Amino acid sequence: xxxxxxxxxxxxxxxxxxxxxxxxxxxxxxxxxxxxxxxxxxxxxxxxxxxxxxxxxxxxxxxxxxxxxxxxxxxxxxxxxxxxxxxxxxxxxxxxxxxxxxxxxxxxxxxxxxxxxxxxxxxxxxxxxxxxxxxxxxxxxxxxxxxxxxxxxxxxxxxxxxxxxxxxxxxxxxxxxxxxxxxxxxxxxxxxxxxxxxxxxxxxxxxxxxxxxxxxxxxxxxxxxxxxxxxxxxxxxxxxxxxxxxxxxxxxxxxxxxxxxxxxxxxxxxxxxxxxxxxxxxxxxxxxxxxxxxxxxxxxxxxxxxxxxxxxxxxxxxxxxxxxxxxxxxxxxxxxxxxxxxxxxxxxxxxxxxxxxxxxxxxxxxxxxxxxxxxxxxxxxxxxxxxxxxxxxxxxxxxxxxxxxxxxxxxxxxxxxxxxxxxxxxxxxxxxxxxxxxxxxxxxxxxxxxxxxxxxxxxxxxxxxxxxxxxxx
Amino acid sequence: xxxxxxxxxxxxxxxxxxxxxxxxxxxxxxxxxxxxxxxxxxxxxxxxxxxxxxxxxxxxxxxxxxxxxxxxxxxxxxxxxxxxxxxxxxxxxxxxxxxxxxxxxxxxxxxxxxxxxxxxxxxxxxxxxxxxxxxxxxxxxxxxxxxxxxxxxxxxxxxxxxxxxxxxxxxxxxxxxxxxxxxxxxxxxxxxxxxxxxxxxxxxxxxxxxxxxxxxxxxxxxxxxxxxxxxxxxxxxxxxxxxxxxxxxxxxxxxxxxxxxxxxxxxxxxxxxxxxxxxxxxxxxxxxxxxxxxxxxxxxxxxxxxxxxxxxxxxxxxxxxxxxxxxxxxxxxxxxxxxxxxxxxxxxxxxx
Lengths: 473, 352
Ligand SMILES: Nc1ncnc2c1ncn2[C@@H]1O[C@H](COP(=O)(O)OP(=O)(O)OP(=O)(O)O)[C@@H](O)[C@H]1O
Ligand SMILES: [Mg+2]
Fold this sequence. Notes:
The structure holds two protein chains of two kinds. By secondary structure, chain A is of the alpha+beta class. Chain A has ten helices and 14 strands. Chain A folds into three domains: 196 residues, Beta-Lactamase; 104 residues; 150 residues, Histidine kinase-like ATPase, C-terminal domain (Heat Shock Protein 90). In chain A, the strands form four sheets. Chain A has a five-stranded antiparallel beta sheet with strand order 4-3-7-6-5. A five-stranded mixed beta sheet of chain A has the order 9-11-12-14-13. Helix content of chain B is 36%, strand content 20%. In chain B, strands 1, 2, 3, 4, 5, 6, 7, 8, 9, 10, 11, 12 and 13 form a 13-stranded mixed beta sheet that branches. The longest helix of chain B has 15 residues. The N terminus of chain B is likely disordered. Chains A and B meet through strand 2, helix 3, strand 3 and strand 4 of A and helix 13 of B. The complex binds adenosine-5'-triphosphate (ATP) and magnesium ion. The site of adenosine-5'-triphosphate has 25 residues of chain A, from helix 6, helix 8 and helix 10.
């Protein structure tokens, strides 16, 4: 047994896409890189600024202390007095328990303080202390120096003072701030991770929505994309819509062309056929009569193909439009069986059809359902032997309406069952019977576009059983 | 100059210029006392250089030795200035220097002679006012007190503040003439430290100086001589004495009365540092940890008038003024500043 109907599922509608780098991932990486750069810049900026600020503050304290030290210098005749308040030195150390060194030089002689504290290369002038860096006992220090003139021994004399401190305190403050800045930077970055995820998703959201909308469409739905999209996506959607339009045009042009071509072929074919039949009547030669019969048969075959092609084109274009309405199958089959009965009686077949008491309504395109059922019935009649009976049944099975057409004809070889649905495929069993191989193609297409199921199975006791199920309305 | 704060037996007057910049000839360490615990030739030795005499140090030394019998201890007592020079000039391999001369300890640390002490819970528990960087750790604190002979003042008239002392001295100048003593700031480093700290806290000090100057105050180099004269009755009032020693003497001698001035009481820190020249710094750290442990604190508190930096100090809490342990102490060692101070001091003492 073979299922000739493929289920309508998404993979059928979505073509394979060759994938490059993910746009969302790229966006997130770029956001994160930007956040990392921003965090690092923030960290460095805070660090440098804090370092400078701490140094400036320390320098201000050092300057004030140097000034206080120099102002404490007083001369009385040949005695140098110095008021060195302990608080001046304490003040320098208060911030971070720094080491403190000082030196007072008078006439090139160190009068008090540390001889190990180097003086600046240039002698400071003016009221502002001169800052410089030097080493005391192998420890780097920041120093300030100032020169003052005092009346010493009856003459104006220059006294140079130097005051130095280690910068453990400043380093500790800078370190503490750097830690905080580091945490701030990391916090900023950590916050940026979900933010960039959200942002990337928000930016790419419309793309996904459009893709979903397009993917959810039926196989023949060639309407342009109507969803409103952000202006950045407009060129993409415009291109897509242009493509859809061209596709639709090409599609309908082909269908119209096929239908017109079939029509144009049919008319001269009937002429050929009529002419050949007249000739057959008139011809006496058996050989010529055989030839003419072959001509008539070919013309019949050709005509059949043309009308099936027309029907197929119709099926194609109608299933694309997805015209849907309630279709009562009982009435439909009433008409169809009535229209087929003459053909059946011509072949001495009895058609059994009993319309069920309750109406069976499906949602679909009446014309397409009718075409499908006509082709099923046509096959049953074509491939039956004279005096056979054909049963047409309509019932409901679960949520589906079921139409079964049972014949006692030649049946189908099991090997053939799988390969009959594609276009122009005919079975091994056709022998002299005229056909194009498009009938079952149309049945399958209609069944697919209506979310139905079509099966063709050998019937027990000989013959074929064709079943078409369509979802109830 | 000598700054023996607690060894009354040895009175030696060494006059050493305090000028920082004057090159001092490297003097050999003058050992006052030496105390050894454990086998002297044992391999791990902890060498302590201290200004606290053996009798006061013994409780904590023995407690430490009991807890660490593997270590033998060589405890060397020297004057504050001698101890300073042993480290600053001679770089002698002592593992721990314990001194009451806060200014000299500060100078050792400021000049890079001290080794950083690694952080530990015990060290971090020491209040910030009793530490400087990771170089100096306070061990104990003791008040700077006034000692009077009982009966020097009438009942209920014993002065409790400097102002009251000034008033009592003024009320009866004849009684106190030549009977008031204090350190000579010119010869005693501790005396100069106390006097300059006093002066920094207000004008009362200079008023007191003038009053005792007018009373022909007697100036001493050392606490021992001062307290002896007080016990003998040659003095009635001794101003600015180290608390631990005074309390110890007062405990034995009922004629001595110790007063912690209620306007403010200077608190002196006895501090420790590990010199760069230490041969066995790990042993020194063990000693420090012990001194700051529960048993160490108990042993330190055994000495009268002295309490561990981890205990709440005696006396009125609001009156305590712990001498600031920071480079401000360096000003105390400045020659010019000292000259200026001493000129004012002499002017107060020698009055026309
Ligand atoms: N009821 C049936 N009994 C036996 N064979 C059948 C039956 N229905 C279909 N077949 C086989 O399936 C083949 C395909 O059927 P299909 O209707 O597609 O083509 P066709 O009938 O040959 O041509 P046409 O397009 O003209 O109907 C047939 O050629 C035939 O071999
Ligand atoms: Mg057919």
